[in-house]
Design brief:
By secondary structure, the protein is mainly β. The protein is 0% helix and 45% strand. It is built from no helices and eleven strands. The strands form two sheets. Strands 2, 4, 5, 6, 9, 10 and 11 form a seven-stranded mixed beta sheet that branches. The N and C termini lie far apart (40 Å).
């Protein structure tokens, strides 16, 4: 059974940093895109960042570009999201996602592209 388990969320002051981790089990995703999304209650899931199988391609939402960094360690089957200069508007639940195979022309910034999802980890940015 494939599982993605996020960790690293919590409460942080504005301007602070957090690093989210997403550990995959049940299969390897070393050659597949993985991504981070976030979703506030009552809103659609929003793209945050994506990384290709071997890390050659990374991309970010405009709202986090320059503040967040996505990375992966294929030996650990884990993807990370380093979040710096956090703002109150970054407060929400964050989810990692993994594609089952090649994108086949699908966009890595769309939630519908991904086949596996974690349960989410809450990030709260508040004084």
């Amino acid at each position: 059974q494939v599982q993605l388990v996020e960790s690293g969320g919590g409460l942080v002051q504005p301007g602070g940093s957090l690093r989210l981790s997403c550990a995959a089990s049940g299969r390897t995703f070393s050659s597949n895109f993985m991504g981070w999304f976030r979703q506030a209650p009552g809103k659609e899931r929003e793209f945050v960042a994506a990384i290709s199988g071997y890390g050659r391609i990374t991309d970010y939402a405009a709202s986090v570009n320059g503040r967040f960094t996505i990375s992966r360690d294929n030996a650990k089957n884990t993807v990370y999201l380093q979040m710096n200069s956090l703002k109150p508007e970054d407060t929400t639940a964050y989810y990692c996602a993994a594609a089952a195979g090649p994108l086949g022309g699908k966009s890595y910034s769309k939630a519908s592209t991904y086949d596996y999802w974690g349960q989410g980890t809450q990030v709260t940015v508040s004084p």
